[in-house]
User: What shape does this take?
Amino acid sequence: MSWLSKLMPSGIRTQAGATKNKRSVPEGLWEKCERCGAVLYRPELEENLEVCPKCSFHMAIRARARLAALFDPGSTRELGAALGPVDA
Assistant: This one.
């Protein structure tokens, strides 16, 4: 037993099996706002076009998501979709 564990009150010590009882939360389900720190539900945030409903902070949005928000479905066509980088 280390000197630090002797100093800790008995109520703070953790049990070896304590982590087994916790439920797992899927990754990417929740997002934290960079400005206000609010925890936001990811599908709700995508529906709100990556804008925090609490403080109106605009988070980064991918190019395809921005284009999908700007243009009607089927009204555009992508040019050069099969092109790749030359230096790769």
About this structure: Residues 26-65 form one domain.
